User: Which sequence fits this backbone?
């Protein structure tokens, strides 16, 4: 699969890695995987989170704040899970560099992968402007990040 220069959140291609053990499958991404045009990754799994686990949100900022030490990732049951999210982001970045990835298509609103909008840390489904931890780290390192919704809209798929 050396020709792929794009990576995407694994849940988009049907990998059951969402916090509750489900996926966010979009047929278009499964097709890209079959055509060897995209690498898959799940920063939460890469960071050591198990599936299923309680949902998590960023409290006190967004992924850039987490990377700067000013915000934390917390689970709905109150545990600080920041270390898992940062470790997963670092591993995703290392993978991207190793494989020459230029673009990452990431699941919208995720505390790892969110691009532009994320949940605000109150577990009330309230959205705020911001990036997930992995999206922020990739962006800081020159990799284009785009949400799955933006990407699918741009390529005008028939999903």
Assistant:
């Amino acid at each position: 699969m050396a020709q792929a220069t794009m990576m995407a959140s694994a849940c988009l291609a049907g990998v059951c890695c969402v916090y509750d053990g489900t996926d966010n499958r979009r047929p278009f991404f499964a097709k890209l995987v079959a055509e060897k045009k995209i690498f898959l990754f799940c920063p939460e799994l890469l960071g050591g989170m198990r599936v299923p686990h309680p949902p998590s949100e960023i409290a006190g900022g967004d992924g850039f704040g987490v990377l700067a030490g000013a915000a934390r990732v917390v689970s709905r049951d109150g545990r600080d899970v920041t270390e898992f999210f940062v470790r997963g982001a670092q591993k995703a970045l290392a993978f991207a560099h190793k494989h020459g990835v230029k673009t990452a298509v990431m699941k919208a609103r995720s505390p790892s992968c969110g691009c532009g909008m994320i949940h605000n840390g109150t577990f009330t489904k309230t959205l705020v402007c911001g990036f997930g931890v992995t999206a922020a780290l990739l962006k800081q390192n020159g990799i284009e990040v785009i949400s799955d919704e933006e990407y699918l809209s741009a390529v005008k798929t028939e999903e």
Observations:
- The chain has a mean pLDDT of 94.
- The CA atoms of residues 69 and 79 lie 16 Å apart.
- The first strand starts at residue 6 and ends at 9.
